[in-house]
Sequence to fold (176 residues):
Amino acid sequence: MTNFTWREFDAHTASVGDMIIDQGTIAYVIHIEERGFSNPRFLNREKRVTLGEYRHEFFDDEERLSGYSFDCFADGTIPEPSNYHNVKDDPNLIDGGIQYYERDFKTPATMKCVCGEIVYMDNVMTNTCGKCARDYSIGGSLLAPREQWGEETGESYSDIASFNPSINDDSWKDLG
Ligand SMILES: [Zn+2]
Fold:
């Protein structure tokens, strides 16, 4: 079992039973599921992570529309008591007990760029390496440098610019 901060947490190396403990928030990793297509080019497939979180809740009144909530461990322990004891001892508040919530999120597939950097494959059109700016398709194929886009069809930038004079250099790059 590993304890991560949110920044450190990586769905591709985490395991069920790990926790995220960070600035008063506590989350249990309760499920990790591989999703999406597998691809030999990828380092990791897309994953869906389910987190379980316990909160001790206190309410201002029976309507339960407002109040206080403290992230806690499964046994109810509060990691950073802060004003927990003041709230708990306040006779005007209703103790709602420890509630359990689940939420999940998706982490994109990753692949290694030819430069060695990890690229997150989260865009259906292009996935760009943050280090060398190479572009990859969602399937992991290296795409031609942007300045060459359009060359396969025999179009040059000047042909397209004259076909549509409103296209300037910047918008041409954005066509990708
Ligand atoms: Zn790269």
User: Anything to note?
Assistant: Residues 161 and 169 are 9 Å apart (CA to CA). The first strand starts at residue 3 and ends at 4. The pocket of zinc ion is lined by residues 113, 115, 117, 129, 131-132, 134 (CB under 6 Å). Residues 3-107 form one domain.
